[in-house]
Specification:
This protein is α+β, with helices and mostly antiparallel strands. About 15% of the residues lie in helices and about 30% in strands. Strands 1, 2, 3, 4, 5, 6, 7, 8 and 9 form a nine-stranded antiparallel sheet that branches.
DNA sequence: TGTGCGATTACG
DNA sequence: GTAATCGCACAC
């Protein structure tokens, strides 16, 4: 019932792709979460890692669409993005929060500091910890590969979507490139 | 080679 | 409000 999104889904403007990822499922090795919050990043965007061009760190972000860009930050956290647009564009969607759907027991084990279910995946570094995503998944093919994937379970798009400024950045704070499902308790903050 | 800071989280 | 913790990007 759940099918992977085709490469063509990702090979579009990131500002279109990002809100459409809401409601889709991110899965990895038995853990499943519904995407409830995302942000878009582009090459012509001061807040984006890709703003300075291709580096060792951003190589995957400039690669073909439909792959996973995972980065390490604050000396301890991993965050996961779906690469969008075309090769060389440097665009990606940051997955900021999930509603846990499956593999909750494993998530609780990997997130011992979580006290309530809504603490498990309500942040970009929380969800990578809960699912076990890290450097080993850098560059993973979300469309064809065996690892992490984003699937459509046929539940349709959310009945409403909210948007506003992105979180945790100091540049380009005026861009309303964050989207989330209103009232969903698993959204960050 | 040195340094400031980050697409965060958790705790006081 | 702020410590934790270290790799990256850029200055020197």
């Amino acid at each position: 019932m759940a099918r992977r999104l085709p490469r063509s889904f990702y090979a579009r403007p990131v500002l279109e792709v990002a809100p459409e990822l809401l409601g889709k499922l991110l899965t990895f090795e038995g853990c499943v979460g519904r995407i409830v919050e995302v942000e878009a990043y582009r090459q012509d965007d001061e807040a984006s890692h890709s703003f300075r061009g291709v580096t060792e760190r951003t190589r995957v972000m400039f690669g073909p669409p439909g792959h996973l860009y995972v980065y390490f930050t604050y000396g301890m956290h991993w965050c996961a993005n779906a690469v969008c647009e075309g090769e060389g564009q440097g665009a990606a969607v940051l997955i900021r929060a999930l509603e846990p759907i499956g593999g909750l027991e494993e998530m609780w084990t990997r997130r011992p500091k979580a006290r309530r279910e809504r603490d498990l995946c309500s942040g970009p570094a929380k969800l990578t910890a809960a699912l076990g995503l890290g450097v080993d998944q850098l560059g993973a093919d979300l469309v064809r590969g065996p690892g992490p994937r984003i699937v459509d379970d046929g539940s349709g798009s959310p009945s409403s979507i909210a948007s506003g400024p992105r979180i945790g950045i100091s540049k380009a704070i005026e861009k309303p490139w964050r989207w989330w499902i209103p009232e969903n308790p698993h959204v960050s903050r």
